[in-house]
Amino acid sequence: xxxxxxxxxxxxxxxxxxxxxxxxxxxSKSFGSNEVLKDISLEVRRGEVLCxxxxxxxxxxxxxxxxxxxxQVSSGRLSVDGxxxxxxxxxxxxxxxxxxxxxxxxxxIGMVFQRFNLFPHMTALENVMEAPTQVKRVSKxxxxxxxxxxLARVGLAxxxxxxxxxxxxGQQQRVAIARALxxxxxLMLFDEPTSALDPELVGEVLDVMKELAKTGMTMIVVTxxxxxxxxxxxxxxxxxxxxxxxxxxPREVLANPQHARTQAFLSKVL
Amino acid sequence: xNDASSGRATTPAPAGGPGAAPVPTxxxxxxxxxxxVVAVLLLAVVAVFIIDAAQREAFDWPNVGKYVFDxxxxxxxxxxxxxxxxxxxxxxxxxxxxxxxxxxxxxxxxSIAWVWLWVFRGTPVYVQLVFWGLLSTIYTSIDLGVPFMExxxxxxxxxxxxxxWLAVIGLALNESAYMAEIVRAGLLSVDPGQSEAATALGxxxxxxxxRVVLPQAMRVIIPPTGNEVISMLxxxxxxxxxxxxxxxxxxxxxxxxxxxxxxxxxxxxxxxYLAITSVLMxxxxxxxxxxxxxxxxxxxxGPGPVTGAMSAVDAEIAETAIAAKHGGDAR
Lengths: 270, 331
Known about the structure:
The structure holds 2 protein chains of 2 kinds. Chain A contains 9 helices and 12 strands. Chain A is α/β, with parallel strands linked by helices. Chain A has a single domain (22-267), classed as P-loop containing nucleotide triphosphate hydrolases (Rossmann fold), CATH 3.40.50.300. The longest helix of chain A is centred in the last third of the chain and has 16 residues, at 199-214. By secondary structure, chain B is mostly helical. Chain B folds into 2 domains: 2-57, no CATH class; 68-293 and 301-322, Orthogonal Bundle (MetI-like fold). Chain B has helices spanning 2-7, 33-55, 61-68, 71-103, 107-122, 125-133, 135-138, 157-160, 163-189, 192-200, 205-235, 248-259, 262-290, 305-328, and strands spanning 141-144, 153-156. Chain B has a two-stranded antiparallel ribbon with strand order 1-2. In chain B, strand 1 and strand 2 form a beta hairpin. The A-B interface holds A 68, 70, 99-100, 103-107, 109-111, 113, 115, 117-123, 130-131, 134-135, 162-166, 179-180, 183 and B 191, 193-194, 196-205, 207, 211-212, 215-216, 291, 293-295, 298, 301, 304, 306-307, 310. Chain B: It is found in: Cell membrane. Chain B: Residues 1-20 are annotated as: Disordered.
């Protein structure tokens, strides 16, 4: 299935020959008897922006959550930057990691949630400072300077002392992005980051994500925003029923979907 | 809107249209004369009761005044407060452990926590206290060593645990069962997305518990825990079952037995219980304020609609926890 990942031009930076950022090989995932991912094989290169689209229940979010081990794969191999996630590879066996070691791996993977999940008892600034100070043991002063810089980058410098309950949805999601970036991740996962927002607030979040893509961040975005996919993504993956149906350059897939299921889906959302 | 309605001839011209008659604006509120009547009646009853009580011989106010600041009584109040604080601290710590055990994936831990709750919640605290009093009869010595072998060290139980500590243990273990359910309700009230976000940031389970989940659970945990503290203060009057006799109620009973005046000393004890309760309530107020961060009003505006909805939900959860406790079983 790996031949499905076509290579879009002009993505690779210096790391052309290095290992892919995310490599999924025959990944399957079941909840009880319900198989939500079936033999997924995917490759995400450094600096690539990949958009995962598909109807709800197609397994997009589950796949994303498998990448940082919030869910465990049932079979197959899923590695980030050459290292299997949540497992230690010895010989031909994968040993499940202690949660503490798995937690260490997640430091390098930022995640942004549909419902923001900001910590409501902390201000925007404290939210962004929390992980660097608590997990990486960065000094308070350093973390604060960096947090203010990140908040300025997402356009919220003057909202640093506001609690999440006093920010709009779009502002909360931008703080959530800054919070994830504070750990200096090498990979960012976005789980429907604009689906819980009022339509007029979607743009401000997408703008921040576009800026982030320009800096060369590797991003995997589960989204229903086809405009964003067309403009920003290097690769578009269409999933349905737990399988990858179609993969390719977003402009081509959106304009000329090859698979009947993709055509049916796109005719409804575009 | 005005332009539109004036253009439409068929619409009955509402007040406010151009050139319409001035709108009557005086609002006459509905009067409630019966409220005043009821209020006056009640105040009269209260006044009669107070005046009567002040003059009634049986209350023996001079003796109340004499004993309320008696050193034996204030010392007993100190013991009552100490019993309350110590057994609450142990009860809360054990309660948190039990609550976490009940969430554990390990079925043995889960069952042990469940059985603990079943036993300590299912039997009257008075009965438990009598049992603790008989501990030294059941286990005459406390041994350290390998089971069924000659112990390395052996202490007589009575030397290790006096009646005060037996009372503390008895109250604390009983309390832990109730606290476990209160803490569990608090943990369940926190959105699972919170610990997920903490996990995704690389926090360990313990860290996400300490930094993210517990501080939010506290808002739900504190009100029923305040209830528990006050309830504990009054339950200490039962430790005479152990028998520990230096706390407020037993001490005032002893004094009244010596001077043959039970009523004034009951009033003395009540005054002290009320005084301590009042102090504890003030403490609870400040604790609640501390953990309300992020849900209060924004510095520059009034409270948002989200805030109100959230605290309503929390209040509901807290009420459920209290109802589960007081409705389910008599202590």
